[in-house]
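Title: Prediction job returns without error message
Component: structure pipeline
Severity: low
Priority: P3
Assignee: unassigned

Description:
Job completed but the reporter wants confirmation the result is attached to the right record. Sequence as submitted:
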Amino acid sequence: MGTIQALRGTRDILPEEVAYWQKVEATAREILGKAAYQEIRTPIFEETGLFERGIGEATDVVGKEMYTFLDRGERSITLRPEGTAGVVRSFIENGLFAQGGVQRLWYTGPMFRYERPQAGRQRQFHQIGVEVLGSADPRADVEVIAIANHILQTLGLKSLRLDINSLGNAEDRQQYRQALIDYLTPYKNELDADSQDRLTRNPLRILDSKDERTKEISLNAPRILDHLSADSQRHFDQVLQLLTDLGIDYQLNPRLVRGLDYYTHTAFEVISDDLGAQATVCGGGRYDGLVAELGGPVTPAVGWAIGLERLIILLQKLSGSSARSLDFYVVSRGEKAEPQALILGQKLRQAGFSLELDLSGSAFKKQFARADKSGAVSCLILGDEEAENQTVKLKWMATKEQQTISQVDLLETAEQLRKEIDTYKN
């Protein structure tokens, strides 16, 4: 029988890569916690109607990309293609709106879309996202953008730019939709097949087409910024001014419409020039009508999602190896030494040190070779002679300096040892 492989569009996150994921998650968790955002965890699958109503039946996500199936109770179930709809459903179902004020929520986890896999885009992919529910203030728009910027900068990302647009309110969007249809209809036969299909169903998505001829036609299309009401224009002007006040650079992109129907007013993307075709690292915007559309009270809201696969690719380009920085690698060989090494190693872990215990039982030479590759600051060596004398040899990997110390002294001087290890790490 042949081996079973991961399905196309999914991938294993191997141990040497997990350190990047942990760094991103820890950084986001710390920054979001300090900004009073609370984590929420929603199911990976939901009733299909949630996404049809929330995202929009005319979108590519609902029409082409969702993983939808009937469960054993003949209910239509969908693996979540994005995080916002599930958070809003939870916000309504659990009565979070009744708490009053502004709800600041964040989430992380896998999402699922049936797309053509490529670098930075998988059929199972992961996101970190935030949702601010209950504020129509332009400051909420800018707060979420600033927090995304803070996370990405803290991670050390460079070559990023913020593209921003306004989609106006529902009335603005409807007027613009008609203006766009009027402009594009004479060119219908020149548009690519997907855009011809979108012309009456979802014409704004034509502006996002990658087809060269369609892009040429769209260059002279009406701009949604020219169809904003006075209130919508005022909201957008305040957003731009607040970004300027914070020193966050941006560029207007009238073609930026995002792919989901629920967006209103501010829409934005954070883009990296280092990612090629799949360049968007973070995308989001305001969605003031979604909560009411899903059966809740009228609730203004804004949020974003960061694609972790693309972010990890950037981090790997920036920092190269994600090698661990262990405090100790423990080498032992001998009938008495090996049990003692296990006990000593566990005591050191309980004292707060990180270490790897070599369990191979192979010759010292092979264990030393693994110690050299481990990324450990120091190596602890126990043979039967050390076991008999209750000592251990401590070898600093950077200088190859070696000393013999009693096992008791090693544990009793943990604080001083911690300082020495940190000196080598830095």
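Comment from assignee: result matches the submitted record. The longest strand covers residues 103-112.
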